[in-house]
Fold this sequence. Notes:
Elements: E1 3-15, E2 20-31, E3 40-41, E4 64-68, E5 97-98, E6 113-116, E7 125-147, E8 155-162, E9 169-174, E10 188-196, E11 203-216, E12 220-230, H1 235-256
Antiparallel strand pairs: 1-2, 2-10, 3-5, 4-7, 6-12, 7-10, 7-11, 7-12, 8-9, 8-11
Amino acid sequence: MKSRFLLVFGLAGIVLPAAQAAVSVTSWKDVAPSGSAGNSYDPASSNVLFTPSSTDLAQGLTAAVAYESTTNPGDVGDVFYESAAGPSVWTDGSISTVYATSGMDAANHASYGVITGYTGSYVLQTFVTFDLGSVYDLSQIDVYTGWNDSGRDDSSFTILVSSDGLTFDLLGSYAKGSDDTGTYTSPVTNLHSFTDDGGAALATGVQYVQLQFTDADNARAGLVEVDVFAAVPEPATVGLAGLGLLAGVSRRRRTAC
């Protein structure tokens, strides 16, 4: 039987440069039912909570990936670890995967790009940064992590936002539980959704969204998809914009006369 879990619901008061927001972080875990090796499995096909977007702000973008180690400066991770597909899948609008076959071939991990997160006596963190191309007000950020089993399916991470790519502000964080390696042998997918608990904009004036991965299962985890959604303008805001447009048209007409 397929398993679905509501894992975490948390609130944190975060002060952003242009607004105050109470950031809500809600997490779900999808565990696939038993299946045959090599067969495909798509959580979105049977779990209404898992709905990756193909029209969000990050769709088709290529993330910049960087690493930081406070214990061994210069060390880096490998987004293609165990023949994973790498960053190209993080914004393709799909969370479909396959039941693992023996070995570590590319077919097994074609749905994942691997992030590295060591803690303890050795520290290595992964920074994944998306340039949205313009400044937006954001309503929601969804981060999907996962793997063919529970060996590398999740990671703790922090989301930071910036208007200029130089100065980043904390938006919110997710802290995973203890590693559950060996608990599940079928595909595991986690959804971590960041929203404002009052329905306001999650963040305003944002062009860069950065994920800082700090503590991954077995030091490495699969990142499946990142969706970034623009806030819908308030009706009053739309009305004011419309009035401004009409005023501009009126002025142009008077000038033309």
